[in-house]
């Protein structure tokens, strides 16, 4: 004996099927809206980071939308009310939910924050400003937009209802569910590994999407010997963000005068040719512990002129270096010359590169080969002024030659601008505009810089290289061999904090 389904059971089944298809349509819409979060955030930069981005994007947004369906819409399908009422309520709830998601996405795009209690003060002040600037026509326009959006949801709900029998024949429900489940599970699984490894391309995405709480398992992994929790905490203390997009440079206004009557030459060697004969003839002091960690010509230029590592290069392209800004303010004639390169090839619009090397400027900054620098060093005009000659670009260690009364035994390119400014009479605090130090009056016996995405710390005979995830290598400078010496975590933490203090 075959018993037919009751009319109520048939009705509930059809409503549940409709609800699933209506939810799937809104999941797709939510994913499209959530693309605002993706374009508002920096790119991961690695293949695994990109894979996680898409898995987390589809998995998390799909889960949020489906969870909303289960909580707010699915129970309606079992109520003894008309299907029209259920579709209307579901459409209103969907319109409101997606409108909140869109508002949160726009807020994130503008401020980097999501809707939360902590962002309430920001939202309150923003709302107060908007209330005064938005007139009633604009409010009417926003209301009209929501009405149109609600109308779209009503049309969508009705269209799905009318075509539910046809849609059920497509049999894409199981593949769609499988896809979102795989995205959700794989995203969390990858994050468990990334969190344990402090893998920056992934963990920096933790705050990208709203209500995102990626899975972690550090305690469980340490319990089973899969993670050294002490080393993890140490690496966490040393991790840093290599992608800096906003910068506070200078940290404080720089007020000082420079001597416009003094001639100064800052010569930076761009190859590895020998300079000893030229500097010996000029009778210059030598600092043998001079390091140029910059990984590119642009990095060499930015670290020298701005006095900060190439970590900040992209954030500084539209900022004028303090050295050149002061020279301009006090009518000191200056030039920045790069040998054998078109002056407009470098991405520093705030710097006016000279097409030709002039001999009648008071402040001269030259990036050139050893041959050119040697020729300049043999010139009476150069040796009679203040001279700083830096070598070692592209090598592990170079030398700094100068006629200034330097007392430091350790130096890098970030020290050149503070030293030259001090020699020209500027007594402003170096920490306002540089991560380097004045070599005439050094205040620390270590230096910190960057090479690519690595932090470089030089201390004693140790060269410590720290990756963004907190992992590190220690090399003995004198032997160029890997060292097993204990890591000075306190020093390294202070160095990284000092390095990143211009970051907003």
Termini gap? 75 Å
Instruction: Note the total helix count.
Output: 18
| Total strand segments | 13
Strand order of the largest sheet: 4-3-5-1-6-7-2-8
Number of domains: 2
Average pLDDT works out at 86
Multimerization status: single chain
Name the beta content range: 5-15%
Query: Outline, from the CA principal axes?
Result: elongated
List its salient traits.
504 residues; alpha/beta; 13 strands
Write structural notes for this entry.
Helix content is 48%, strand content 12%. The chain has 504 residues and is of the alpha/beta class. It folds into 2 domains: 7-227, no CATH class; 264-444. The strands form 2 sheets. The protein has an 8-stranded mixed beta sheet with strand order 4-3-5-1-6-7-2-8. Strand 10 and strand 11 (462-466) form a beta hairpin. Helix 3 packs across helix 5 and helix 11 packs parallel to helix 15 (370-377).
Give a short summary of the structure.
By secondary structure, the chain is α/β, with parallel strands linked by helices. It is built from 18 helices and 13 strands.
What topology does this entry show?
Blueprint: H1 7-39, H2 47-73, H3 83-111, H4 120-133, H5 136-162, H6 164-168, H7 173-197, H8 200-203, H9 218-223, H10 229-238, E1 264-269, H11 276-282, E2 285-291, H12 297-306, H13 313-316, H14 322-329, E3 334-338, E4 353-354, E5 363-368, H15 370-377, H16 380-383, E6 386-390, E7 398-402, E8 411-412, H17 416-423, E9 446-451, E10 454-459, E11 462-466, E12 472-476, E13 481-482, H18 489-499
Parallel strand pairs: 1-5, 1-6, 2-8, 3-4, 3-5
Antiparallel strand pairs: 2-7, 6-7, 9-10, 10-11, 11-12, 12-13
Helix pairs in contact: 1-2, 1-3, 1-5, 2-7, 3-5, 11-15
């Amino acid at each position: 004996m075959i018993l037919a389904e009751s009319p109520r059971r048939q009705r509930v089944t059809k409503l549940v099927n409709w609800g699933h298809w209506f939810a799937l349509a809104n999941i797709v819409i939510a994913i499209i809206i959530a693309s605002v979060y993706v374009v508002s955030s920096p790119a991961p930069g690695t293949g695994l980071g990109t894979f996680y981005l898409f898995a987390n994007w589809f998995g998390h947004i799909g889960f949020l939308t489906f969870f909303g369906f289960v909580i707010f819409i699915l129970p309606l399908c079992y109520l003894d009310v008309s299907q029209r009422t259920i579709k209307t309520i579901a459409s209103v709830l969907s319109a409101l939910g997606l409108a909140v998601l869109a508002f949160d996405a726009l807020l994130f795009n503008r401020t980097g924050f999501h809707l939360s209690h902590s962002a309430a003060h920001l939202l309150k002040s923003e709302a107060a400003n908007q209330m005064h600037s938005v007139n009633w026509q604009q409010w009417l326009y926003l209301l009209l937009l929501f009405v149109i959006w609600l109308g779209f949801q009503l049309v969508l709900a009705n269209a799905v209802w009318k075509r539910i029998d046809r849609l059920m024949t497509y049999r894409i429900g199981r593949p769609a569910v499988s896809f979102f489940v795989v995205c959700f599970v794989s995203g969390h699984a990858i994050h468990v590994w990334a969190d344990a490894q402090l893998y920056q391309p992934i963990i920096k995405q933790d705050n990208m999407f709203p209500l995102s709480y990626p899975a972690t398992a550090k305690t469980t992994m340490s319990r089973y010997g899969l993670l050294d929790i002490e080393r993890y905490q140490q690496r966490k203390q040393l991790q840093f963000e290599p992608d800096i997009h906003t910068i506070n440079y200078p940290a404080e206004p720089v007020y000082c005068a420079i001597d416009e009557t003094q001639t100064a030459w800052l010569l930076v060697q761009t190859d590895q040719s020998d300079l000893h004969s030229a500097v010996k003839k000029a009778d210059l002091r030598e600092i043998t512990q001079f390091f140029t960690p910059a990984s590119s010509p642009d990095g060499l230029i930015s670290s020298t002129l701005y006095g900060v590592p190439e970590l900040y290069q992209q954030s500084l392209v539209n900022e004028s270096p303090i050295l050149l800004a002061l020279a301009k303010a006090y009518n000191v004639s200056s030039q920045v010359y790069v040998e054998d390169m078109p002056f407009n090839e470098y991405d520093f619009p705030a710097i006016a590169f000279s097409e030709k090397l002039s001999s009648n400027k008071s402040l001269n900054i030259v990036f050139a080969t050893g041959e050119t620098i040697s020729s300049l060093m043999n010139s009476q005009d150069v040796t009679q002024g203040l001279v700083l000659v830096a070598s070692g670009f592209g090598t592990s260690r170079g030398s700094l030659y100068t006629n200034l009364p330097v007392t430091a035994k350790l130096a890098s390119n970030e020290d050149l601008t503070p030293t030259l400014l001090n020699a020209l009479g500027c007594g402003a605090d170096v920490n306002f505009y540089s991560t380097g130090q004045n070599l005439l009056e050094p205040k620390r016996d270590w230096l910190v810089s960057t090479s690519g995405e690595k932090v470089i710390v030089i201390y004693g005979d140790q060269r410590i290289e720290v990756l963004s995830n907190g992992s590190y290598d220690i090399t003995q400078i004198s032997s160029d061999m890997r060292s097993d010496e204990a890591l000075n975590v306190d020093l390294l933490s202070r160095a990284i904090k000092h390095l990143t203090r211009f970051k907003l």
